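Backbone shape codes:
***
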Amino acid sequence: MSAVRSRWRRLDPEQAPRILLAEDDDEMRRLLEVELRADGHVVFSVRDGTEMLEVLSDASRLPFTAPDVIVMDVRMPGYSGLHVLAALRAAEWTTPVILITAFGEPRLHEQAAKLGASVVFNKPFDVDDLRTALLHVIGDKAMSSGETKRIG
């Protein structure tokens, strides 16, 4: 068991980090759900950008009041992760967003940084790196520097 995973297991279940996940690849979404739930997170997932915007506009669909962090793929059917991130920032949401992409061109990383993404992971990535990023963005929300990190 990784040191990152053991840190989550020490958290009070009432204070478990709440993650909203958007990933169109069924296998990847299931893998991330299983891994993050095993770490003690409360995870609610959607299949694409359209469903993500619907859930964000109707919070009654969520099993929690608001996510602590949003993890989403960049290229999804409907709206892209960048489009959803832009909509969040336009609506003045400050929820940390972690993007994952199989198409990690420098321009995409620049756009993500301008929109305020906390981290951008290039696929394939190590789930332990995602765990570490989650520790930082959830644990350090109050101390956020706004800097986007490129991983992968």
Notes: Residues 26-38 form the longest helix (13 residues). The first strand starts at residue 18 and ends at 22.
